[in-house]
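Severity: low
Component: inverse-folding endpoint
Summary: output formatting inconsistent between runs
Steps to reproduce: submit the following structure tokens with default settings.
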């Protein structure tokens, strides 16, 4: 009602803040790319005029929420553009300058106005909110640049730490302020600072495309569990060695200069790491990503678990080293995707039948590089099936059987090409039929004989590539931990397995680690013979 009256009756000239809010809110109603493009001239104008004014932080605080809405919508669109290289490029081409200029506006305004504003205690919320917003845009700028070109860019820690210390210390001692982490603008400031700490340990060239965006979401969701303190202790071991841009790392002692000056912020990641592990267990048990992490339902289960595995190592301070060095090579080989098709072709190779089966999921792929543990493949004119965590069968023209691999990286390139990083898991897989007593009532039986379920699986024998474990791979999570399953008619005769744990959840399959028993502890299904154990 008030807004309507304002439009009907003009009470003086519209203020600069009102004009700025109206401009940004109008742009926010457009699609993300159009919104960013429409605001470029206005943002550049604000940057040029900012030197002459002292209201930059007030203006930016007024429009910040709308600017974030535009950017977050663009980041969400990037998750949908996984295999669309052209759209991904278009988004990053607009997002990088958009974040860069907003970050420049905040940086310049803070340098001009922060100290003067802080002289009045009533301005403390404005200063703390502005620094928190500035840290948010530092993080966004870092993420979108990393998505466009993954590299080890450094965050400006030589500016971040002093600004955060100054803003948190307003209106009281730093120790008091940081113990009130959930309160008001100071709480938001600490959360944004903690988010940057996690980002500095999260974004690496090992993560690309969607995986970077998933890692960023996880860091944002778990940043609130970071401990922030002005004291170095076993609970807050992470800190900065000096005033350069090296990210916080585990310190065995506080640097002499910082100790003498009584400065420094220190962080503890233990709670965030525990919550990350709890999230991993929740996803594995529920077989879905929580809505808080994935409100639009766009995240892939296996891909999210792959990112979490990476973050567990990074957040705990362990260095991640490549398992084996890659060597560039040229050539081509056959691949087959989809668990059912992979198992069927492995079974056909075991039978050594001359009958050829037509599998629509068999493709020819170009080899880009190889290592002792995997292979890099290029897929030309990709049709959109490739996912992180997907099982693949890989076979050269000289091989008889297929080798089993799992997709660890999936990167879109121009003209419909995709690059796939495949970890090889087994050299000589076997298709097996696991048997278990069927769960039927006496009323459903037509005879007094026990009814049996048959579960078709792939069996990988111990190999250094799979950690020297016995692995069983099924399309669905149908095996129960601790239970014993028979596998009649394998190439070693009848086998029995006790299920140890659920080793990994893939995009289209589930891996179980099993213990192979010396003797069969459950009887095989009546009439089992080796002739029908490899049914296709």
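Observed output (run 2 of 3):
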């Amino acid at each position: 009602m008030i807004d309507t009256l304002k439009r009907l009756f003009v009470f003086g000239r519209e203020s600069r803040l009102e004009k700025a809010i109206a401009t940004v809110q109008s742009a926010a109603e457009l699609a993300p790319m159009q919104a960013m493009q429409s605001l470029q001239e206005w943002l550049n104008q604000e940057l040029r005029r900012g030197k002459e004014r002292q209201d930059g932080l007030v203006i930016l605080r007024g429009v910040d929420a709308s600017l974030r809405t535009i950017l977050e919508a663009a980041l969400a669109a990037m998750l949908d553009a996984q295999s669309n290289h052209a759209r991904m490029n278009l988004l990053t081409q607009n997002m990088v300058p958009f974040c860069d200029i907003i970050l420049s506006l905040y940086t310049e305004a803070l340098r001009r106005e922060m100290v003067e504003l802080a002289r009045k205690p009533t301005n403390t919320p404005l200063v703390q909110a502005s620094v928190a917003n500035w840290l948010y845009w530092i993080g966004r700028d870092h993420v979108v640049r990393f998505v466009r070109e993954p590299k080890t860019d450094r965050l400006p820690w030589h500016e971040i730490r002093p600004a955060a210390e100054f803003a948190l210390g307003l209106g009281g001692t730093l120790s008091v302020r940081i113990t009130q982490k959930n309160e008001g603008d100071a709480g938001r400031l600490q959360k944004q600072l903690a988010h940057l700490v996690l980002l500095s340990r999260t974004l690496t060239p090992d993560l690309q495309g969607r995986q970077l965006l998933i890692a960023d979401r996880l860091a944002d969701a778990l940043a609130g569990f970071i401990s922030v303190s002005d004291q170095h202790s076993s609970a807050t071991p992470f800190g900065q060695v000096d005033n350069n841009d090296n990210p916080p790392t585990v310190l065995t002692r506080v640097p002499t200069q910082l100790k003498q000056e009584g400065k420094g912020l220190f962080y503890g990641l233990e709670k965030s790491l525990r919550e990350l592990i709890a999230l991993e267990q929740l996803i594995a048990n529920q077989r879905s990503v929580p809505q808080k992490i994935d409100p639009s339902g766009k995240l892939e289960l296996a891909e999210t678990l792959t990112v979490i595995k990476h973050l567990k190592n990074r957040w705990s301070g362990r260095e991640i080293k490549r398992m084996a060095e890659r060597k560039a090579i040229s050539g081509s080989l056959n691949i087959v995707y989809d668990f059912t098709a992979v198992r069927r072709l492995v079974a056909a190779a075991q039978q050594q039948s001359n009958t050829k089966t037509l599998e629509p999921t068999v493709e020819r792929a170009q080899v880009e590089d190889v290592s002792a543990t995997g292979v890099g493949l290029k897929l030309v004119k990709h049709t959109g099936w490739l996912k992180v965590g997907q099982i693949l069968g890989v076979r050269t023209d000289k091989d008889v059987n297929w080798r089993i691999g799992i997709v660890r990286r999936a990167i879109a390139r121009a003209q419909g090409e995709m690059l796939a990083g495949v970890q090889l898991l087994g050299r000589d897989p076997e298709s097996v039929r696991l048997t278990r007593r069927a769960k039927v009532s006496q009323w459903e039986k037509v005879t007094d004989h026990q009814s049996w379920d048959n579960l078709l699986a792939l069996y990988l024998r111990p190999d250094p590539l799979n950690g020297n474990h016995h692995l069983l791979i099924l399309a669905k999570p149908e095996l129960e931990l601790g239970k014993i399953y028979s596998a009649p008619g394998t190439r070693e005769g009848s086998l029995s397995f006790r299920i140890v744990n659920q080793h990994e959840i893939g995009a289209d399959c589930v891996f179980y680690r099993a213990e192979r028993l010396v003797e069969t502890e459950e009887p095989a299904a009546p009439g089992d013979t080796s002739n029908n154990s490899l049914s296709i």
